[in-house]
UniProtKB/TrEMBL annotation:
One of its GO terms (molecular function) is 4 iron, 4 sulfur cluster binding. Its cofactor is [4Fe-4S] cluster. It comes from hydrothermal vent metagenome. The lineage of its organism: unclassified sequences, metagenomes, ecological metagenomes. It is an enzyme of class 2 (transferase). The keyword 4Fe-4S applies. This is Biotin synthase. Residues 1-50 form the Biotin and thiamin synthesis-associated domain. Keywords: 4Fe-4S, Iron, Iron-sulfur, Metal-binding, Transferase.
């Protein structure tokens, strides 16, 4: 899982985290860090053909 700070650390290379072992991200704003817009993250995931979990059992 990759959460707060990925926008600052990985910048335009965020999509590469999934090829290197990440299997989830936190979207939107975080407790103390402003994140990217939810739509931006959803578009990135769609471009990678990754499925977004709708409900966790």
């Amino acid at each position: 899982m990759v959460a707060g700070g990925r926008e600052l650390l990985f910048k335009e290379r965020q999509a590469e985290i999934f090829a290197n072992g990440a299997n989830s991200i936190v979207i939107g704003n975080y407790l103390t860090t402003q994140g990217r817009g939810v739509q931006q993250d959803l578009e990135m995931l769609a471009s990678l053909h990754l499925e977004v979990a709708k409900k966790v059992k």
